[in-house]
Amino acid sequence: LKKFVIIGPESTGKSSLAQSLAKHYETHWVDEFAREYLLKNGVNYQFEDLLTIAKGQLTLEASQLEKANKAGKNLLIIDTDMHVMKVWCEFVFNQCHTWILNRICEKQYDGYLLCNTDIAWVKDELREYPDLESRRKLYENYRDILIHQCTPWIEIKGDYQNRHNLAVDFIDAIMID
Questions:
Q1: Among candidates 76, 89, 87, 83, which has minimal Cα distance to 30?
Q2: Which of the 8 DSSP states describes residue 49?
């Protein structure tokens, strides 16, 4: 089973892309656990909450991985991973939990899709950074991480249809290998 992770700043279409790719490939996808957690517990989170969210994300990923395997799927789409948790910890609190860093070293994925900030920011009750400067800084943090690791990755940009098409071409190329 191949696993592809979608990362990037908030409001860059990650969840929409995950859903459209799961539908396209008729497979399972892993939702972003942080949304569920923050809707339930409120947006005034602390550093320790990010560790709880990270653990919840990996539990959700393991559950969907098991379901995909049982269903005989050959692909899993993942909205957010520990790189996102690392960037979030460091951007907000200038530090990261060792547990998260250790999971980054342990987890293996087949490809990353990095969503650019070139679409309009959409306000919702959980989003924190409407300013383009913060969003670009976050994007560059993700880009730097991907440049300095070995897993194939692609920048996802343009309108929603272009984003979907770029992602499908990238995934198809890796799935053929």
A1: 76
A2: H
Which tens digit of pLDDT belongs to each residue from 79-123?
999 999 999 999 999 999 999 999 999 999 999 999 999 988 777
The DSSP string of 8-42 is -STTSSHHHHHHHHHHHHT-EEE--HHHHHHHHH-
**What is the C-alpha to C-alpha distance for residues 133 and 63, in angstroms, rounded to an integer?**
36
Q: Which residues pair with 28 in a beta bridge?
A: 76
Specify whether the backbone of 171 is left (phi greater than 0), alpha (psi in -120 to 50) or beta: alpha
* Mode of pairing for the β-strands spanning 2-7 and 75-79: parallel
pLDDT in tens, 24-51: 999 999 999 999 999 999 889 999 999 9
Instruction: Please list, in sequence order, all residues whose beta carbon lies within 8 angstroms of the beta carbon of residue 152, skipping any fewer than 6 positions away.
Output: 110, 111, 112, 170, 174
Q: Which residue has the tokens 């910890």?
A: 89
Question: Considering Cα of 156, then 110, then 88, then 62, what sign does the dihedral take?
Answer: positive
Whether the model clears a pTM of 0.90, i.e. scores above it, the answer is yes
How many Å apart are CA 61 and CA 109, to the nearest integer?
Answer: 12
Cα distances (angstroms) measured from residue 109 to each of 43, 56, 75, 93, 172: 30, 18, 11, 27, 15
